Every structure is written in structure tokens, then in C-alpha cells.
């Protein structure tokens, strides 16, 4: 009886600590909830357990939830909105603005599985980081199984970010293919190209730039082999030169 009496307030205090932490960081908590909802909707689109018709609606919900998260994060980074060119230029430097644009590009388009992976994985990584903070506020030893999963996820963060960057790059030819197949709009490839240049120039996330460089090195290595046909080599070199001219200048 003595043990149960002592453990009761401690458990209540631990839970109270987590609630107090969530209430003290309302904007971060709102983004955490929206990211968890994004993960939930994205998972139900990738794994259509409720049917293909419902999967399409979950695709839109995931992108809308991601747009909400991005808007909240952008407000957190730039709290004082100004209707000016300088403010717009500053907003375009933020990754949250990039993915707000990303969500708007694909939310009304034909559902593409490749386009949901960046949204899913970014939300999962950020939600995992905040979940660890919530667990720490609750108790340093609470839910060890969940902690281990989150730590393994964070340990693979670099590989996940590279996978996201790879998705961002290969979505560019995918939007062109969607246009010619009748599943995309005429403006989508041009708007997505603008998004890709923003990701390439990102100050916080260099993985898109890194992947472009690594892909170029791999392709050049392959086409310089004697077994590679000359016309393939010339085509690849011309493509590399064309893509390099389209790349924005990074300070």
C-alpha cells in the first residue's frame, strides 16, 4: 500500500510534466499533431488498406496537413508578415516555404506515390524528434521500446534525407511524363522546377545539391567506360551540360 501510494503521485507528475511541456509549446505541439496526422494519411495512401478510392482522399489530406505544418513553421520562422518583395525573398529561403509550395503543387494533381514520400519522411523525422522531447518531459526512462525505435530512426536520418532528395530530383522528369500522359497540368513542370531550384539552394538542407553532384559523378564514371556507346556518351554529356546550366548559383 505504501509503494502504490508513493508511485501514484510520481506517475501523475510524469504525465503532468508532459502535458505542461505540450501546453508551454503550443505552436510546436500543433505542428507535432499535424505531422502525426500527415504520417497517418500518407501511410494509408501508400498502403491502401481502406480501398483505392479512400487512398486518393488520404493523399490530399496528407498534402493539406503538410501545407498546414509548413505554414505554421514558416510563421514561427517569420512571425511578422509583410506584403513586400523583401519579405517574399526571405520566405523563399525557408525550407518550410519550399514544402508549402510543394504541397500546393501536388494537392490537386493525379496521386503519385513518389510525391508522398518526402512529405511522409519529413513529417516522420520531425515528429520523432518532438516525441523524444515529450518523452523526456514525461520521464527520462518512459516507454523504452518507443525510445529505441525513435533512436534508430534518428540514427538513419542522413540516409532518409538522401532518399528524400533523390525523390525530389526524380519527380522533375515524372512531372514531365505526367504532362505527356495527360495526368498533369501544363504549369506543373515549370512550378516544380522552381521548387527544385529552391531545394538546390537550400541553406539548411544541402542533400539535394549533394545528390545532384553524386549522380553526375556516377553517370560520368559509367559513360567514360570503353564499353559505353559513343551516342549514349554524347547524349549523357549534353544532358549533364544542360542540367548544369539550369542549376541556380549558390552563395
TrEMBL record:
Q: Where in the cell is it found?
A: Membrane
Give the signal peptide as a residue range, or say none if absent.
none
> What does the entry list under GO cellular component?
endoplasmic reticulum; membrane
Recorded topology in the membrane: Multi-pass membrane protein
Superkingdom as given in the UniProt entry: Eukaryota
> Short name of one Pfam family for this protein?
TMEM33_Pom33
Annotated membrane-spanning segments are 32-52, 99-125, 169-193
Q: Which GO terms describe its biological process?
A: endoplasmic reticulum tubular network organization; membrane organization
Alphabetically ordered keywords of this record: Membrane, Transmembrane, Transmembrane helix
Q: Which family does it belong to?
A: Belongs to the PER33/POM33 family.
Q: What protein am I looking at? A: TMM33 protein
Lineage of the species this protein comes from: Eukaryota, Metazoa, Chordata, Craniata, Vertebrata
